[in-house]
Amino acid sequence: MRKLTVILSALLLAVLPAAAQREFGGTVRFDKTMHDFGTVDVKDGALNCTFEVTNIGSEVLNIFAVTTTCSCTKVSWTKGDIAPGAKGTIEVSYSNDEGPYPFDKALHVYLSGFDRPVILHVKGVTIKARKK
């Protein structure tokens, strides 16, 4: 019984940080903080994903800016006020034209009421074009 309690406690401690990483400051919740494209072919072209942002606070939320670590990653986001309980989005397009290699691109999201940005990631592995 004690062994089971230790195992369940360890699992709970492992899961809680992952769940908590989606909520920040009791103000904002992201549907995910990382999007994994998996293995993609260099010929697949641009890869796109969306991060959903929910205002879980009692004040209006604004996304002031989203910066990227590479010009290969373009972003657009909800401009203007996100009311309490409302949702916004951050749309990401990764060019996928830099050759075969693993990639992990960081997005720095600057939000109202936060001193530091929230960091999101898009990642995957690009491979050479498959032969037919």
Summarize, please.
This protein is mainly beta and 132 residues long.
Backbone shape: elongated
Q: How would you state the average pLDDT, rounded? A: 86
Q: Measure the end-to-end span.
A: 56 Å
How much helical structure, as a percent, in the residues? 10-25%
Please name the CATH architecture: Sandwich
Order of helices and strands, N to C?
A: HEEEEEEEEE
CATH class identity: Mainly Beta
Q: Note the quaternary state here.
A: single chain
Q: How many separate helices? A: 1
From the 3D structure, determine the CATH topology: Immunoglobulin-like
Tally of strands? 9
The neighbouring-strand order within the major sheet is 1-2-4-7-6
CATH superfamily: Immunoglobulins
Our estimate of the beta-strand percent is over 45%
Tag the structure with descriptive keywords.
single chain, 132 residues, mainly beta, Immunoglobulin-like, 5-stranded antiparallel beta sheet, 4-stranded mixed beta sheet, 9 strands
